[in-house]
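pls ignore typos typing on phone
pyridoxal-5'-phosphate + seq
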Amino acid sequence: MGHQRIIYMDHSATTYAKKEVVDAMIPFFTQHFGNPSSIYGIARESKTAIDTARAQVAKALGADPDEIYFTSCGSESDNWAIKGVAYANRKRGNHIITTAIEHHAVLHTCQFLEKEGFAVTYLPVDRYGRVDPADLEKAITDKTILISIMYANNEIGTIEPIRELAEVAKKHKVYFHTDAVQAIGNVPIDVKAQNIDMLSLSAHKFYGPKGVGALYIKKGVRIENLIHGGGQERKKRAGTENIAGIVGCGKAIELATADIEGHNVRIRAMRDRLLKGVLEKITNARLNGHPTERLAGNFNVSFEFIEGESMLLWLDDEGICASTGSACTSGSLEPSHVLLATGLPVEISHGSLRLTLGDANTEEDVDFVLEVLPKVVSRLRDMSPLYQKATKDGGCNV
Ligand code: PLP
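k done
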């Protein structure tokens, strides 16, 4: 490892916490450590801080503060929305609709409910990863109680037509939940104007702390509790509050949504230069996800004849933090369910690279990746018998 600096291009995995966020959190570990459920002074400080954070989250979403519930992470928010609505509305129906490209926090929750007697439809997506509102409408039956469709995909960055999809849900009087974990700070959101009934978010994806999330639940939604115990979060989510985390979540969402367009313009310009450079310098490469309806910082490209994991190791050796389209589960390489759902063949999906740019990046980072990545790809292809054969046979095209 001869490199001097780290180039962090994995903002969709997590982000660093901003200094203002950490500064806002610190007093709540030491000075204002009171339990908000107690009645003395230091406890009131904690309670007021939670109220402020709740108002900050509500404002960022266009919701009312009493429609925001803090949780321990995005996964908990997703689990709560889906299991909570499923259990509370069982008498009305047992059918849930989601998509094939959701995060595992949604997919595995739905699969769990299938074992409990619920029926789940996993909607397909087009080659860009978009769900067709017409497909959603066709899938709805009189037993459908919940639709859960992610706002933006964590792997390929595709932004779903949420307004249209939620419109369909409203027309058929079915609850609409969206996993907006990747969207906050990148896409303007207004839950009222967009007819969203529930929305999940997670602070560590928008320069806040890890281990804190929130679920927006529109007033009137019938939902069962997931965590039982004390009366916190207006008796809906038990557990002594993670006050510092909640304060950090509030501050982070305020900062992340203050100038979404300005942030996107800067990040998109870097991402586009990176993408253009990579596609010019490397043959047999193709972009995954939608060409325009995608998160500003998301780059996801498949390189034929490459093993994504090896690419990551070489990039790591150069100080570049990236991610791939495969998840290493118990030693075997599972191709990404998202890439497969877009119709990408298994062999090509294995050679996928996700770079997600964000506030940590500079133009120099882009220059460096443009210098290093083509060398890494060509080194790996030199070692690939398949690549040797394909080029000898007269070239190949992805
Ligand atoms: N949903 C999406 C789309 C995500 O990208 C993630 C995190 O990677 C999650 C849910 C889970 O969030 P958390 O890590 O806070 O549990």
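The pocket of pyridoxal-5'-phosphate is lined by residues 73-75, 78, 103, 105, 150, 154, 179, 181-182, 202, 213 (CB under 6 Å). The chain has a mean pLDDT of 94. more later
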